[in-house]
Specification:
CATH architecture: 3-Layer(aba) Sandwich
Strand order of the largest sheet: 1-2-4-3-5-6-7-8
Number of helices: 10
CATH topology: Rossmann fold
CATH class: Alpha Beta
Number of strands: 8
Shape: globular
Number of domains: 1
Largest sheet: 8 strands, mixed
Strand content: 15-25%
Distance between the termini: 67 Å
Helix content: 25-40%
Length: about 260
């Protein structure tokens, strides 16, 4: 019995150790593949202060249409969002989409502080790469919501769209792995909830009611905590984590943008 207990404790500690050791791979499983964007999108390269190269996809807005500063989720790369980008460009919206470190041909290793610094860098050079824009909208999906939120806390956009936001990485990890003390081992916390009272820009939150990755309640809490006077919540009924870009979801997004 004693041997079994020792074995169980050893296996438990080994499993938790692996989670801590490989947490970056679990949090940021990006696809590093660099793919050429469609003809309407231009690829820019930005050099960071620590000499890494960031790939950024850019399309200029038509007329006085707004520009969307897009932060993608933790799966895949920019090319996986090509269809979304097509729809945005079709409507005349400008686009600036950041390829995170380790994604889409960008170099370097991602973590919270680096992604925050990189998003601030892209924001700083917006006028240089996309020109003057009438309105600037932050769009974040999943992991990208927390990048957008942390950027907005210091650089308010004209509006923000959040797709499946989570309150904090610690809360999300704790729910996903309740038998491990994940809060003790995480290097990145991505606490979005504490930043929401700083957000005053018009806000749209979309969340699937059947989201098994980021529980629906996370989106509700993020929405409730925002200081925005103009905000709306769109429930994507019956759909999961990847179902927000539905027909009803797109209509809601376009209506929100066009009504600004």
């Amino acid at each position: 019995m004693k041997k079994l207990l020792i074995l169980a404790v050893t296996l438990y500690c080994a499993a938790f150790g692996a989670i801590v050791l490989f947490q970056n791979k679990l949090i940021y499983p990006f696809d590093p593949t660099r793919e050429q964007p469609e003809l309407r999108i231009t690829e820019f390269k930005l050099i960071t202060t620590d000499d890494e190269t960031l790939i950024v996809w850019v399309a200029r807005p038509h007329g006085d249409q707004p520009t969307i500063l897009y932060f993608h989720g933790n799966a895949g790369n920019l090319a996986n969002r090509a269809q979304r980008f097509d729809r945005m460009i079709d409507r005349g919206y400008g686009l600036v989409a950041l390829g995170y470190r380790g994604s889409s041909g960008s170099t370097g290793e991602p973590n919270q502080s680096r992604l925050r610094a990189d998003s601030a860098l892209v924001h700083k050079v917006l006028d240089q790469i996309v020109g003057k824009t009438n309105k600037l909208i932050y769009y974040g999906e999943s992991l990208g919501t927390t990048v957008a939120i942390h950027l907005a806390a210091y650089h308010q956009p004209d509006a923000m769209i959040l797709e499946a936001p989570f309150t904090s990485l610690k809360t999300l990890a704790g729910a996903a792995m309740p038998y491990f003390p994940t809060s003790l081992g995480l290097n990145d916390t991505w606490d979005s909830l504490s930043q929401m009272p700083k957000i005053t820009a018009p806000l749209l939150v979309l969340h699937g009611t059947a989201d098994a990755v980021v529980p629906y309640e996370h989106g509700q809490e993020i929405f409730a905590a925002a200081a925005s006077k103009q905000k709306s919540f769109h429930s994507v009924d019956g759909l999961g984590h990847s179902g927000h870009w539905s027909v009803s979801g797109q209509k809601t997004i376009y209506k929100f943008i066009d009504g600004l």
